[in-house]
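Task: encode each sequence below as structure tokens.

Item 1
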Amino acid sequence: MPREEGEPATDAILAAAARAGDVQSFEELARRHQDRLLRFLLQRTSCRADAEDALQNALLKAYRYIGQYDARWAFATWLFAIGQRELSTIRRRQRPTMTLAEETAGAAPDGDDRSAEPAIETPGELWALAKQVLTDEQYAALWLSYAEEMDGATVARVLQRSKVWVRVTVFRARGTLRKAMEGQKWQGQEQVGTKQRPADAGGGQ
């Protein structure tokens, strides 16, 4: 079906043009998807520089190998898969020199009373909790499924796993997160109850 005048080109049209050598079409694809890809990468690492490096590497490789793009899949899926691999490569290279401080980043300091934290109230808090209690792959599968609203087949392609693996991983991740949320709620209620408990009879002046 021909495109009406003024209607934005679809990713499929731009990808086909890019494969034919149209640099401007690829640049438009990059503009469309780079923010989403960076957001996804930032969820997988605490280092913004690593995420930005992985993004740039992914865009360069996507441009270099655009001829290998399979139009049966969404361009975003292909680009996310490249970004995922690039970030994994960066993290593997850094692992031998990772400091103890980096390895323990995010751990509660000695004496930190987590029972004083309130129950989960916002999406941001929910994802922060997920990052604490889930493995990297569980978090990635959950993020792609819910934050990026990808279906199971697309998530499987990005993470280079089977669809069954994605279903099982998302199911287990949700269970783990649910238990963690219940724990947060219980702790918050316990703290509130402690604060609101009246003084013992006869203890006041």
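Item 2
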Amino acid sequence: MSTDRTNSVETVASSEAQRVKELFLKVADQEAEAVGQLLASKEDHELFGETEFQLREIVHRLGAKTLQAQVNERSKKAYQGSSIACNCAGSDRFVNWRDKNVTGVLGAMRLTRPYYHCADCHRSDVSRGGGGWGWMARR
């Protein structure tokens, strides 16, 4: 890879990392109050055990919200206009944005992606727009 290309990729990655950091801090600010409330309400002898599980739940929620926001932000890039070419030589028309509820290691998330439908072959597709969300596709 050329030096110019490498620098360009690094610049984009750095910019994306900064955007994700800002997104995380926004979500973290929302969850910080829950952490404060939890820990402030506990006596010294209550800080371990059940409190750890409650704290882990908050941290998982923070991770899930951040991941959900990142995936949904990337899904916006998957929209390719009001219609795109279908494999049948017809045209996939953008119908609307569809939600998909998924449960990951961090918890439940609602992910949004563009939904296209071809009137010729009657295939519908949520992965055609790209964005690497083929694992969410239903046919």
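Check on item 2: The longest strand covers residues 91-104. The chain has one domain: 1-139.
End of task.
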